[in-house]
TrEMBL record:
SUPFAM superfamilies: FAD/NAD(P)-binding domain (SSF51905), HI0933 insert domain-like (SSF160996). The keyword Iron-sulfur does not apply. It holds the Pfam family HI0933_like_1st. The keyword Glycoprotein does not apply. Its cofactor is FAD. Keywords: FAD, Flavoprotein. Residues 186-328 form the RsdA/BaiN/AoA(So)-like insert domain. Residues 4-381 form the RsdA/BaiN/AoA(So)-like Rossmann fold-like domain. This is Aminoacetone oxidase family FAD-binding enzyme.
C-alpha cells in the first residue's frame, strides 16, 4: 500500500497530526496503531476528564534535553487544542483547561470521527516493526504487509503506561536511522520513601504542601492531594514534584497544614495543652487524628514549637519511584540534537517526530498534551509548506 504520509502511532500527537494534515492538504495519509484502538491514552487523560492544556504554561514546566526548543514550539501554539477541537472549554482554579463536558473520551472520539469523514486510512492492531528508506520509506508491519510513503512521522510515545501500547520498543525505529536515545526514567509517578513514620497513615489522603529537595536544594513545590501508601506517597501533588526525582534521590518535605503558619499551629497546640489535651490530641480538629499522632511521634517532644515545626516540615527521604507501568510520562527520549526546529530528522530527510517520543516531558496539569498538540501542529505546518497539494480553503 502507498501513502504520502505514514504516521506511526495513533495517540494524541498522531491523531492530531492526521487531522491537521487532512484539513490543510490533499495528501494521502495513513495512521498505523499497534493497539486495538486509536487514542486510548488520550481517552483516559486527565483522570478521564481530558486536561488538554494549562493557562500558566511556561518553560519551567518542561524537562529533558529538548525542553527549551520544545517550549519555543509550544509558546507559539498555546491554544493548539482550540484549532483541533470544536467545542467549549473551561478552566479550573489551578489553570487546568478541560473540555466543558469533562470527558476525555470525547477528545479522542472527535479526532477519530473526523479522520473517518476525511477518508484517512487507519490501521489498528498492527505494529511497525521495521522502517527503511530507499527513495521512499518502506514500513514493514507485524501482519506481514508493507506500506510505502514519501514522509514518515514517528508519534510512537515513550515507555510509560504500556497498557496503552507504549512499551518503549518503538524507539528502535528511530535508532535504526542513527538517532540516539537519552536515558529513560519514569516521571509523573509515585515516590518510594522511608515509611518509618507514615506506616499508620496508609490509605489516608490529605491536602498538603510538598517540596522536592535534591542535593540540598529546593527544586520543585506543589500543593494538593498526598496519599500515603505501603511504599511511600502518591497523589497529584506527588506527581507534580516527581520530575525532580527522575534519576535522582533526595527528600520531600511535607507541610500538613499549608494554610497555617508555624506560629498559628504553635499557639493552637499551646492552647490545647493548657486545657489538658493529651500528646496525641494536640493537633485534633486541625489535622486528621492519625496524621496528628504521627507528627507528635516524629517530633518526639511535647514542645509546641517542635511539634508545629514538624507539622510544617515533615521530611521523608526519597529512595526512588515506581516503574514505567505506573508513570504517566517518560523522562528522556530521542535526542533532539539530531532533530531540526521543524521536528524533522537531521539524519534522514522526510522522517519527522512528534510527541512523547522526543526528549521533552512536562509537568502534571495539561502540559504534556500541550506538547503533543503543539508538536503535531509544527510537523503539520512543515509538511504542508513543502507540498503543492494543498486543501481547498
Amino acid at each position: 500500500m502507498y501513502c504520502d504520509v505514514a504516521i506511526v502511532g495513533g495517540g494524541a500527537s498522531g491523531l492530531a497530526l492526521a487531522v491537521l494534515l487532512s484539513r490543510r492538504t490533499k495528501l494521502d495519509i495513513c495512521v498505523i496503531e499497534g493497539g486495538a484502538r486509536l487514542g486510548k491514552k488520550l481517552a483516559a487523560s486527565g483522570n478521564g476528564q481530558g486536561n488538554v492544556s494549562n493557562l500558566h504554561i511556561s518553560q519551567n514546566n518542561y524537562y529533558g534535553g529538548g525542553a527549551a526548543r520544545g517550549y519555543a514550539i509550544i509558546a507559539r501554539r498555546t491554544e493548539a487544542y482550540k484549532e483541533l477541537f470544536h467545542g467549549l472549554f473551561s478552566c479550573d482554579e489551578r489553570g487546568r483547561i478541560y473540555p466543558a463536558g469533562r470527558q476525555a473520551s470525547s477528545l479522542s472520539d472527535s479526532l477519530i470521527a473526523e479522520l473517518a469523514r476525511s477518508k484517512v486510512k487507519t490501521l489498528t492492531g498492527v505494529r511497525a516493526e521495521k522502517i527503511i528508506k530507499k527513495g521512499l520509506f518502506t514500513i514493514f508491519l507485524s501482519d506481514g504487509e508493507r506500506i510505502e510513503a514519501r514522509i514518515t512521522v514517528l508519534c510512537v510515545g515513550g515507555k510509560a503506561q504500556k497498557q496503552f501500547g507504549t512499551d518503549g520498543s518503538s524507539y528502535a525505529l528511530a535508532q535504526s536511522f542513527g538517532h540516539k536515545l537519552t536515558p529513560l526514567f519514569p516521571s509523573l509517578v509515585q515516590l518510594k520513601t522511608d515509611t518509618t513514620f507514615i506506616k499508620t497513615l496508609r490509605g489516608i489522603r490529605a491536602d498538603c504542601g510538598i517540596t522536592a529537595v535534591v542535593d540540598g536544594r529546593e527544586v520543585k513545590k506543589s500543593r494538593g492531594d498526598v496519599i500515603f501508601t505501603e511504599y511511600g506517597i502518591s497523589g497529584n501533588a506527588v506527581f507534580s514534584v516527581s520530575p525532580a526525582f527522575a534519576g535522582h534521590n533526595g527528600d520531600v518535605v511535607i507541610s500538613f497544614a499549608p494554610e497555617f503558619t508555624e506560629e498559628q499551629l504553635r499557639d493552637d497546640i499551646i492552647s490545647k495543652q493548657s486545657l489538658g489535651y493529651g500528646a496525641g490530641e494536640v493537633l485534633a480538629l486541625t489535622l486528621n487524628n492519625q496524621i496528628g499522632r504521627a507528627i507528635v511521634k516524629r517530633a518526639a517532644s511535647s514542645d509546641a514549637e517542635i511539634i508545629a515545626h514538624t507539622a510544617k516540615n515533615f521530611v521523608l527521604p526519597v529512595y526512588g519511584t515506581l516503574g514505567f507501568d505506573y508513570a504517566q510520562v517518560t523522562r528522556g527520549g530521542i535526542d533532539m540534537n539530531d532533530v531540526t526546529d521543524e521536528l524533522e530528522s537531521r539524519l534522514c530527510g522526510g522522517l519527522f517526530f512528534a510527541g512523547e517520543v522526543l526528549d521533552i516531558d512536562g509537568d502534571c496539569g495539561g502540559y504534556n498534551l500541550s506538547w503533543a498538540f503543539a508538536s503535531a501542529e509544527r510537523v503539520a505546518q512543515a509538511i504542508a509548506e513543502r507540498t503543492d497539494d494543498k486543501a481547498d480553503r
